[in-house]
Amino acid sequence: MGMGGAIRDCAGMWRGGFSRGASQGDALRAELLALEEGLSLCWEGGFQKVSCECDCLGAVTLLQDRSPNRDYLHKHYDVIRRVKKMLARDWVVYVSHIPREINSVAHTLASWGVRNLGSTVFWRSPPDFILLPLGRDCMS
User: Fold this and answer.
1) Number of structural domains found in the chain
2) What domain of life does the native source organism fall in (predicted)?
3) Which of 11, 13, 86, 119 has its CA at a distance of 20 to 30 angstroms from the CA of residue 46?
4) CATH number at residue 37
């Protein structure tokens, strides 16, 4: 499985991107881990207001439910708990669902992670292979 994401400012300008490959897990876990990684990078970068866009409705639903009462029953409890702790920090974070068709940058970065298992990469500027998807997402 692979995960990836892009960090853009409110004007849509690239602030960074990441990819990571892992040998085990399912799609929901990959989405949750990608959200965790992206939030961590935003926190470390000093962002105070963050909008997380995710095309996995299951992950968005889990994180929008701020009640921890049922989380411990979920098979991905460990990641859900960590992400919810991050969401509770002193900052404003919006988590919203977007269609996959306008999230091609994240999928391209995640695909890179699948092909490069065991690697975690952060790009300060967009790599060449992301330029076309970046343009597509900006037009959407």
Assistant:
1) 1
2) Eukaryota
3) 119
4) 3.30.420.10
User: Burial letters for 76-107: b for 16+ Cβ neighbours within 10 Å, e otherwise?
Assistant: beebbebbbebbeeeeebebeebeeeebbbbb
Is position 102 within any domain?
yes
Note down the domain range covering 117: 2-125
Distance CA 21, CA 2 (A): 4
Cα gap 33→140, rounded to integer Å: 25
Question: Does 137 map to a domain?
Answer: no
